[in-house]
Amino acid sequence: MKKYKNLIFDCDGTLLDSNEATVGAFDAFARLMINRGLTEKETDDIFHASSEQSVINLGIPTTTANMLKLQELFDANSGSIKFFDGVEDVLAILKDKNINMGVATNRSEGETLIAMNANGIGKYIDKFTCRDYGENPKPSGDMLKYYLKKYNLKKDETLMLGNAIADHLAAIDAGIDYAYCMWGTNLKHDAEAIEIEKPEEILKLV
Predict the structure, then answer these.
(1) Is the preceding omega at residue 139 within 30 degrees of 0, hence cis?
(2) 3-class state of residue 43 by DSSP
(3) 151: burial class by Cβ within 10 Å (0-12, 13-18, 19+)?
(4) Higher pLDDT, residue 111 or 84
(5) What is this structure's pTM?
(6) Are the beta carbons of 15 and 7 closer than 8 angstroms?
(7) Which pLDDT score, from 0 to 100, does residue 172 have?
(8) Do the strands 158-162 and 177-181 form a parallel or antiparallel pair, or are they unpaired?
(9) Which end is more exposed in the chain, N or C (fewer Cβ atoms within 10 Å of the end residue's Cβ)?
(10) What is the pLDDT of residue 50?
């Protein structure tokens, strides 16, 4: 099995179990803006697109006021956000092994700092890239390309770990390998990828 020196983690749905908070925020937002809750398809889709694209998919303008309202609703639901079972233990081991780790997320810089600090990721990982660090969010590889260049990382030594097809497409665009963290998804792209069933399996990749 190939070993990697650099790991880049998606945040929501990979490290953090934020599904309840995300669905709660978008459902409340939809009820406020278009007087109905999310359909089953819309609920699935929000985990595979940026916040802006998800809002567009609902037929709602992505004005500054609307996006701030969505963030306000997300903050109100953030008390339910926690690490997936086993993830924090693995991050602690990886940190002790001095594995180079970072986060790549479609959150804004401010939203990412909340995840890094308030949600505990920052105890183990101090580097990140986000939608503000590239022209386009995932599924574009812009933020990953920025991160690789900033930290002078070799593509063949770097693995992106995520739960969404958008993460996989971003890794392909950036030219790095990808691993699906199956505790956060049931959807996959048909391109080649590693599949990880449990967080402790990550340790076999370093």
Answers:
(1) yes
(2) helix
(3) middle
(4) 84
(5) 0.86
(6) no
(7) 98
(8) parallel
(9) N
(10) 75
Separation CA 140–CA 152 (nearest Å): 20
| 12-24 pLDDT per residue, tens | 999 999 888 889 9
131: tokens are 């939608």
Per-residue burial over 98-111, b = 16 or more CB atoms within 10 Å of its CB, e = otherwise: ebbbbbbbbbbeeb
φ, ψ (nearest 5 deg) of residue 74: -65, -45
Query: What does the DSSP 8-state code read for residue 189?
Result: -
Q: Which two tokens stand for residue 105?
A: 């997320």
Query: What is d(CA 163, CA 157) in angstroms, rounded to the nearest whole number?
Result: 20
Residue 175 gets which letter from DSSP?
T
Q: What is the dihedral of CA 146, 177, 45, 59, to 10 degrees?
A: 30
In Å, how far are 21, 65, 87, 94 from 157, measured between CA atoms? 34, 41, 22, 16
80 torsion bin: left (phi>0), alpha (psi -120 to 50), beta (else)? alpha
The tokens for 65 are 């006021």
Q: How far is 153 from 196, CA to CA, in rounded Å?
A: 23
